[in-house]
Write a structure and sequence with these properties.
151 residues; elongated
């Protein structure tokens, strides 16, 4: 059975859409979580996370468009192999840079969201106050008449 060009294109579109669906869902859900997080995320972390997620979503969309557009341009004869190589190189570099920057923004959001170290309370109601730690062994207390020998 010989497939028509439309059937091949539909299979390509369907396969491409199906392959990016898990990533698309994760990015969209992540953006929604960031948008509804309210004050649970500090301002800078929320902005960085949103920018990183938005950049990853844009990268995903552009990657799919490029992957679908490329075969169409080649089938129509509008793009020769000599033209394809440099254009594909530029598109790949731009898409990979976008991906790396998006991941970097998400990592920056994680670092910006780190909370300051909490201080240990000095006392708890109903409990004795903690004793300071010493690095040397405790010195025994002895009566003064038992003090060190004098020579």
């Amino acid at each position: 059975m010989i497939l028509e060009a439309e059937e091949v294109m539909f299979g390509s579109v369907f396969g491409q859409a199906l392959s990016v669906l898990p990533t698309l869902l994760v990015v969209v859900v992540g953006l929604i979580v960031v948008l509804v997080s309210g004050n649970r995320l500090p301002g800078r972390a929320r902005v960085l996370a949103f920018l990183g997620g938005a950049l990853l979503l844009l990268n995903l969309i552009l990657s799919v468009v490029w992957a679908l557009l490329l075969p169409e341009l080649i089938m129509r004869g509008e793009l020769s192999f000599r033209e394809f190589s440099p254009i594909n190189l530029v598109a790949s570099v731009v898409l990979n840079l976008m991906h790396g920057i998006g991941i970097g923004l998400l990592i920056g959001a994680l670092l910006a969201a780190r909370s300051k170290p909490t201080t240990v309370p000095t006392s708890v109601p109903g409990m004795p106050a903690p004793q300071p730690m010493t690095t040397s062994a405790p010195q025994p207390t002895v009566p003064t008449q038992w003090g060190p020998p004098t020579s």
